[in-house]
Amino acid sequence: MACLPALPREAHPGRRLLSTPSPAGPPWLGYAFAAIGAVLFAAKGILIKLAFAEGVDTLTLLALRMGLSVPIYVAVGLITYGRGRDRRAAVPGSAYLKALAIGVIGYWFSSYADFKGLETLTPQFERLILFTYPLFVLLFGAALFHEPLRAKPLVAFAVAYLGLAVIFLADFQTGGGDIVVGALWVLAAAVTFALYQLLARGGIAAMGAPLFTSVAMTGAAVVVLALFLVTHPLSALAVSGRALALAVALAIGATVLPSFFMSAALSRISAAANSTIGTLSPVVTLVLAVLFLGEPLRGVDLLGTAMVVGGVGLFTVFDRRRR
To answer: pTM of the full predicted structure?
Structure first.
């Protein structure tokens, strides 16, 4: 991969990308939005596992999720587009195409990979793997935007991945190769989600968070629905009432609301900061899995969760000191 030319520190595109932007409001609001989005996203795995138990397959559930959520995104996008005449005039058509492409990467493929991983993984393990995507934000920032790659953050993520290894080894003893496949799917979701975090910043700055999110999610929805129509009959959407209720909760509570909260956070705080605010997310998922799925509360899960959350939290401390 070709490297970008080195630029002075103050003019460096990666530094602008990963540093705190000029906030549209007080910074604490960005942190609050990021935290709310993380908690709502934490329920996603629980809802997916419950829907799988109703006999709904991955692509059908994705199609329901996008089909139910995309009208809201289109409505918000049209309203935002109609009101933002001054900003609209300054946004080139290519920005909308880029937003569509970024949505396909960050919301279609990442979601598909995540759903596939949940076919074999517990929600808490899935959330912990996905939770380590700040490492990839850091690595891609260094590779693509010449962000300095320091040793301390890597040590923090080594702690986090040791925590993942503890849970992985325990689950591998019972799940075998299926656990490996599921973990690789979710790891692919983490990588593409990190790319989304980085690539979305320019589009959000140009278009505004609501319009960008609407365009990106619409692009993802088009791909999901097209794939569903190619591989499934329309009758596959006739799911049980309980499955439909779960799909609605997944579409609104774990997709629409957290995606807007996340984009609103990205318009106020850095991608690195936003990606580390959700420290509570794995803990919330662990509690919900015990309460709603009857998952056992194992000591190895508590140990692994503590190591992952501690490692990512340590990264947050190092990142804050660096700034």
So the answer is: 0.78
Position of tokens 């709502």? 40
Q: How confident is the model at residue 16 (pLDDT cuts 50, 70, 90)?
A: very low
Helix residue ranges, H only, the chain: 13-18, 27-42, 44-53, 58-83, 85-90, 93-103, 110-118, 123-131, 133-145, 151-175, 177-207, 209-231, 241-251, 257-266, 271-277, 281-292, 299-322
CA 107 to mean position of chain CA atoms: 8
Residue 191 lies in a domain: yes
Question: How many CB atoms lie under 10 A from the CB of residue 27?
Answer: 13
Q: Report whether 56 contacts 250 (CB < 8 A).
A: no
The predicted structure's pLDDT at residue 20: 41
Q: Using one digit for the tens of pLDDT, what is the confidence trace for 154-172?
A: 888 888 888 888 888 888 8
Whether 276 is in a domain gets the answer yes
How many domains, the chain?
A: 1
Q: What is the pLDDT of residues 246-278, one digit of tens each?
A: 999 999 999 888 877 877 887 777 766 776 676
Q: What angle do CA 165, 171, 176 make, to 5 degrees?
A: 110
CB 62 within 8 A of CB 69: no
Q: Is the dihedral of CA 36, 39, 45, 48 positive or negative?
A: negative
- Mean pLDDT, residues 310-314: 80
* Within-domain flag for 2: no
**Residue 57 domain boundaries:** 24-322
**Mean pLDDT of all residues in 39-54:** 92
Separation of alpha carbons 234 and 194, rounded Å? 33
Q: What is the DSSP string of 248-280?
A: HHHHIIIIIHHHHHHHHHHTTS-HHHHHHHGGG
Q: What is the pLDDT of residue 276?
A: 64
71 within domain boundaries: yes
Q: Compute CA distances 124 → 141, 181, 195, whole Å.
A: 27, 16, 23
